[in-house]
Write a structure and sequence with these properties.
The structure holds two protein chains of two kinds. Chain A is of the alpha/beta class. Chain A is built from eleven helices and 14 strands. A six-stranded mixed β-sheet of chain A has the order 6-7-8-3-9-10, with helices on both faces. Chain A is globular. The two termini of chain A are 47 Å apart. Chain B starts with a helix and ends with a helix. Chain B has one domain. Classes of the chains: A alpha/beta, B mainly alpha. Chains A and B meet through α2 of A and α5 of B.
């Protein structure tokens, strides 16, 4: 995150305990103004707990959370004025019409009376509800439109911080695309925190990713910086006319610790190999240069395979599990003694 | 609340029942000479519709919001739990009062369709009508608060309704039962008689019907209503996440 950007959200050493279970353990992070941040983690990692604490639904056991400089714990009503929250499953009243519901929400969110109509129209316009669903009963809406109503509600009072828990869950690809477009349109205007299990979605939409596991942050940064930190190798896809045995010799010749991870013969006589290099990137030109020297190889393709956010997520969470297991080990040994 | 079917079912059942009660009151008075006005007679069974109408009106108010998760979205806005609870109470209390006010039309309907009865001054006994309805509105504040409190305790509307019915029954009938306990002197239980007498609903109704305005029932019903709403606020705050 750029340190020059003022922070909309500051979380310091946030801890939440339910009896003997620690749901959050000393979690600290900052979110800059206008930044879109993805919150990732396996089920039960503490994502929803963090979001509930930030939105003032639940008190923390210790630590502090500030929204636009306002403490959520000591001034919850004031902090809520700066938040638009869309909870998981997006609960909405089934019997109301979209416009009625948004008007009601605008009123309780302290939107000035003269502004209500304009803000409701604006939110419906952004979420593409105005022409298709403004007067529809919410209970009759499709999942995609319901999600849009939830997002329209979250941005209605033009809050500085919008928190969305699983905004794309259960949506079809068209709807996901629409929601992605919508979130992109909020970039720079509002700080957006999104929790999702759909990792490619997060990668496409978010400026920064925070991975949380077992109640602690295990990784934080842009997808590219996380790739460098967690995946200390690079992969290249190579397509050429050379059998496995021949290509193993070529790979050895290429040097730099390049290994063949997998190889698949194609129907047109070509072979597609995945190469793994112990360096982060920058070997693409070298590989192309070396392989194109031999015309018999008929090199067709060399492309760098960027590790997906899914791979980063798996590595980061696995690492945190391994670390917690090692840190617990001495206790067990002591117990045994 | 105004778009919920249970509200209209409650209103319909209430008006049917009270219409029938009013008709029976008229019939009774026409058979046996009595000083009672039809309004006084039919208000004496106020507790029967209250036992059914208040749970139907209030059972969804918070239980349904919690079950649907909409309470959490409400709690993320700048409104406080007290504001939410008090608005729910006001909405239910307004509708409760509206239903009772609509029973004021019964004497008018009687006058229109039974001209022979209209000559009787007791049909529009303003003093008794005023005092009787004041009791209904004052005690109603507590009954509606009981319903709202019950609704905050559970996510299931049916359970909320049953809880509300049980608590209403205890508050209306329980005090009378306590007061009629065969407590003998020296049994150590004499202390119970005075508070039991103080909280007897039917005693209050009697006093109000004879235009006797005592401040104690006002204090009892309003303070209990405020206490219950305060407890509901605490429960709502604790269970909203």
């Amino acid at each position: 995150m750029d340190s020059d950007i003022p922070n909309s959200v500051i979380v310091r050493r946030l801890t939440k305990r339910y009896g003997s279970i620690t749901a959050l353990n000393n979690v600290s992070f900052r979110i800059g103004k206008g930044e879109v941040v993805g919150f990732l983690g396996p089920n039960g990692a503490g994502k929803s707990t963090t979001m509930k604490i930030l939105s003032g639904l639940m008190p923390a056991t210790s630590g502090s959370a500030e929204i636009c400089g306002v403490s959520v714990a000591s001034m919850p009503d004031e902090a809520r004025k700066h938040i638009g929250f869309m909870p998981e499953n997006n609960p909405l009243p089934e019997d109301l019409r979209v416009k009625e519901y948004l008007k009601f929400r605008a009123k309780i969110k302290d939107v000035p009376g003269a502004e209500i109509k304009r803000r409701v129209d604006e939110a419906m316009e952004i979420c593409e509800l105005k022409r298709k669903a403004a007067y529809s009963i919410i209970g009759n809406l499709s999942k995609g439109f319901r999600q849009r109503v939830g997002i329209a509600d979250a941005i209605l009072s033009r809050p500085e911080v919008v928190i969305m828990d699983e905004p794309t869950i259960g949506l079809d690809p068209h709807q996901i695309l629409a929601i992605r477009k919508l979130i992109n349109s909020l970039r720079g205007k509002m700080s957006v925190i999104i929790s999702s299990h759909i990792l490619p979605e997060i990668e496409l939409v978010c400026d920064r990713v925070i991975i949380i596991n077992q109640g602690a942050i295990v990784a934080s940064g842009s997808p590219d910086s996380l790739r460098k930190d967690f995946i200390p190798y690079s992969k290249y896809k190579v397509s050429l006319k050379a059998g496995r045995a021949d290509f193993e010799k070529i790979a050895l010749y290429l040097g730099r610790g390049i290994e063949i991870e997998s190889g698949v013969p194609e129907s047109d006589g070509y072979f597609t190999y995945i190469l793994r290099a112990p360096e982060n990137s920058g070997l693409g030109a070298t590989i192309v240069g070396e392989l194109s020297k031999d015309a018999r190889l008929a090199l067709r393709e060399v492309s760098e395979q960027k590790p997906s956010l899914e791979e980063i997520f798996m590595v980061a969470t696995r690492r945190s599990w391994e670390e917690s297991r090692t840190s617990k080990k001495p206790d067990r040994e002591e117990d045994e003694i | 609340m105004c778009i919920s079917p249970s509200t209209y079912i409650a209103a319909f059942l209430f008006l049917c029942f009270m219409g029938l009660m009013y008709l029976i009151s008229l019939y009774d008075i026409s058979l046996t000479p009595s000083q009672q006005s039809p309004t006084e007679k039919f208000l004496s069974v106020f507790w029967v519709p209250v036992l059914f109408m208040v749970p139907l009106l209030t059972m969804r108010s918070l239980a349904e919001e919690r079950r649907m998760g909409t309470l959490a979205t409400l709690m993320t806005t700048p409104v406080t739990a007290w504001q939410i609870v008090f608005s729910k109470f006001l909405a239910s209390y307004f509708f409760y009062s509206l239903l009772w006010v609509s029973t004021l039309l019964f004497p008018v309907v009687t006058q229109m369709y039974l001209p022979s009865v209209s000559a009787d001054a007791r049909l529009f006994d303003v003093h008794q009508m005023f005092s009787g309805y004041v009791f209904i509105f004052v005690s109603g504040a507590m009954y509606v608060a009981i319903g709202i409190f019950s609704s905050s305790l559970t996510r299931t509307t049916l359970v909320a309704g049953m809880l509300s019915f049980g608590m209403l029954f205890m508050s209306i009938v329980g005090a009378g039962l306590l007061a009629s306990l065969p407590v003998t002197e020296g049994s150590g239980m004499e202390w119970i008689l005075r508070p039991a007498d103080y909280i007897q609903t039917f005693r209050h109704l009697e006093d109000f019907s004879s235009a006797l305005f005592d401040t104690r029932p006002f204090f009892l019903y309003f303070s209990t209503a405020i206490l219950l709403l305060a407890l509901t606020t605490l429960v709502t705050e604790a269970k909203s996440a």
